[in-house]
């Protein structure tokens, strides 16, 4: 058996017709489809380039807007802190005013209560004095009645009444 060496590239008739068909297809493609496809690809490239430019512009605008927003946010925070400080100051002032008013009211109430206590003391003294006087008169009457019954009579009663009348 003899071995046959096959050529590295063998061109037969089928391959020849395939190459011819491929060249004819390339000719038609180039003649009828290359310009429209090129136009479409160029339009697509231009559209992509425009969209990239627009995206870059939008990115820059977004960055500027973000910086502006950050500035506004910082200003708003500073204003909010200032408002809080003013509110705290007003609250402290109001607290001091309320405390002063409460202290003044307390002092007024204490003075009023002291005056009332003094009036009550005077009233109690008057009542005590009248009760002591009534008791003294009652005791004197009992003593007089006892003496009258035992010894003296009406003269002693008249003398006592005269004495008590002079003391008052």
UniProtKB/TrEMBL annotation:
PANTHER family: ATP SYNTHASE SUBUNIT B, ATP SYNTHASE SUBUNIT B', CHLOROPLASTIC. It is a single-pass membrane protein. GO terms for cellular component: endomembrane system; plasma membrane; proton-transporting ATP synthase complex. This is ATP synthase subunit b. It is found in: Cell inner membrane; Endomembrane system. The keyword Ribosomal protein does not apply. Residues 38-130 form a coiled coil. CDD domains: ATP-synt_Fo_b. GO terms for molecular function: proton-transporting ATP synthase activity, rotational mechanism; proton-transporting ATPase activity, rotational mechanism. F-type ATPases have 2 components, F(1) - the catalytic core - and F(0) - the membrane proton channel. F(1) has five subunits: alpha(3), beta(3), gamma(1), delta(1), epsilon(1). F(0) has three main subunits: a(1), b(2) and c(10-14). The alpha and beta chains form an alternating ring which encloses part of the gamma chain. F(1) is attached to F(0) by a central stalk formed by the gamma and epsilon chains, while a peripheral stalk is formed by the delta and b chains. F(1)F(0) ATP synthase produces ATP from ADP in the presence of a proton or sodium gradient. F-type ATPases consist of two structural domains, F(1) containing the extramembraneous catalytic core and F(0) containing the membrane proton channel, linked together by a central stalk and a peripheral stalk. During catalysis, ATP synthesis in the catalytic domain of F(1) is coupled via a rotary mechanism of the central stalk subunits to proton translocation. Component of the F(0) channel, it forms part of the peripheral stalk, linking F(1) to F(0). InterPro entries: ATP_synth_b/b'su_bac/chlpt, ATP_synth_F0_bsu_bac, ATP_synthase_B_chain.
């Amino acid at each position: 058996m003899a071995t046959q060496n096959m050529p590295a590239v063998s061109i037969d008739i089928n391959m020849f017709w395939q190459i011819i068909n491929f060249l004819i297809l390339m000719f038609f493609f180039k003649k009828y489809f290359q310009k429209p496809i090129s136009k479409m690809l160029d339009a697509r490239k231009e559209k992509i380039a425009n969209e990239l430019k627009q995206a870059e512009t939008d990115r820059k605008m977004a960055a500027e807007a973000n910086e502006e927003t950050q500035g506004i946010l910082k200003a708003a925070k500073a204003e909010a802190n200032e408002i809080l400080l003013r509110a705290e100051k007003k609250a402290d002032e109001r607290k001091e005013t309320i405390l002063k008013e409460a202290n003044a009211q307390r002092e007024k109430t204490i003075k009023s209560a002291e005056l009332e206590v003094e009036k009550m003391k005077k009233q109690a003294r008057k009542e005590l004095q009248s009760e002591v006087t009534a008791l003294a008169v009652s005791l004197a009457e009992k003593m007089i009645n006892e003496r009258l019954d035992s010894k003296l009579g009406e003269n002693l009663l008249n003398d006592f009444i005269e004495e008590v009348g002079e003391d008052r």
